[in-house]
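Section 3.1: Structural characterization of target chains.
Under the original work plan, the team committed to producing a structural model for every single-chain target entering the pipeline before any wet-lab resources were allocated. The record below documents one such target. The sequence was received from the expression subgroup and is listed exactly as submitted; it comprises 445 residues.
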Amino acid sequence: MLATHAFTHRAAAQTAAALYAFTTSPTAGPAAAVVIGKNGNLFGTTKYIGAFGDGSVFELSPPTAPEQPWTEKTLYSFTGQNGDGQSPVSDLVVGPGGIFYGTTSYGGDSVCIAHGCGTVFQLTPPAAPGGTWTETIIHSFTGQDGDGFNPESGLIMEPNGVLYGTTSGGGLTTSACPYSCGMVFQLSPPLAPGGGWKETILYQFTGQGGDGANPWGSLALSGGVLYGTTLRGGSGACNYFGQSGCGTVFELSPPTTKGGAWTEKVLHKFTGYDSDGASPVGGVIVDSGGALYGTTAYGGANECAIRTGPPGCGAVFQLTPPAMAGGAWAESLLYSFKGLVGCCNGDGATPMAAVTFGPDGTFYGTTYNGGEPCTPQNTVGCGTVFWLTPPTMPGEAWSEATISLLEQKTGVGPLGALVMGPHGTLYGTTSGDDISYGTVFALLP
């Protein structure tokens, strides 16, 4: 296993600025990335903020004149009542006609866990400007008969409108995951207007025999094959979440014959030791050569400076496909975080989101902790934005640079991935803490 490390430095030339700061419900701000729409508008979700305190879908419009503030508009407030969803913590996906699709962790028709089992929703734009957006629940999870519950990840959509996603719970209950192992699902659009969406369970994790358990991050689709991560399962002694295993990266291949079963294969089992990562919360992204990239919240080659307990401050990893069919995928760590907190040399810790492709092979991402302290009492840092630059020569180390996030300036605790807009501007979100409310921020090149 190859582990590469690089000296961390503060990139003072970059500037992170809050575009909008939410003003109610501490720790209830955005937990996911934004979507860039027409005219540069940004769309996203909040966990609890909204008219009923159960989450919302929002739109941010850029100013019409320099130095003016961005304008926030709530497109829909979840109620958590009468089958409606509650607590969206995932990215939105845009379908034909500008329709948004997303998931809520709770709510819906069934009560398999407190506050409901979760939903998949559709949000349709108004027919005329200024009209009301229309929300429709297209699936309510039940947690029964193998169905999932508690979707924590966003959706991906095929050109034909089919949606794919994961639930962290539901599916099978085994000795390895007594509270259920989670599953991968497919939602097919109705065959006729007004019809219902059809759910198909593609795979139920077992957490046994090296299989993963409890997927948390979003899926990636490449060549008809689904790729993703599981927070638990696999191998290793990472039992600090109450269940065994340090997590996995998996692929799910479609059936070769109509009506056949999808085939799951574990591509990598994290160990949390020997410089490997542990607990991949975010999903993976796929490059043109089929290599996968992602983050782990824990593990890595370095001791974590900001805490004791789970090993390591997290890492960025690469999985390279085998040269010949049937061979093993090769994993390497591109960077291991140090978790340093301070004004000028703060490194990140605990990356919770997937990385984002940039130009010239650069990767961008966020860490939930590390960087500069938010308050005098803060010892773990407000979080960072980082970027990794590939080496100029094969075998050399990747170079990492960070910008610290500050409470009441840019925000605290980023959980979502970064999104690159026109001219290289990066957009992100922070979830907030006990005294702040979450933000949407921009990082100017």
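The domain at 29-345 is CATH 2.120.10 (Neuraminidase).
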